[in-house]
Amino acid sequence: RSLSAPASVSSDDDIAMRLLARFVNKAIYSHQDGILRTPIEGDIGAVFGLGFPPFTGGPFRYTDNFGAQKIVDSMRRYEEHYGAAFTPCQMLLDMAKNNDKFYK
User: Fold this and answer.
1) CB atoms within 10 A of CB 32
2) Which of 39, 58, 68, 98 could be cross-linked to 102 through a Cys-Cys bond (beta carbons 3.0 to 4.6 Å apart)?
3) Considering the entire predicted model, what is its pTM?
């Protein structure tokens, strides 16, 4: 595997999305596994504890606003080039499939 990123996934927006998508996926995975009881726990912890961009509201609010399907689509594109690190967790896949939101 080459160390240089293909141009199709190397724009400034792609680089930002790669960082956000993995963070969001891990947060949702933590909720899926019961480590986080509620999305708000994850949002508050991510913003105040980990430095997630506060204007996004946290990873769960970001997913609701940006769209789970868009995140899944981006992750699938990155997964083709970068492998399993970009495989969406099952809860994110389900959210995308059902057009669901964490905050209703």
Assistant:
1) 14
2) 39
3) 0.90
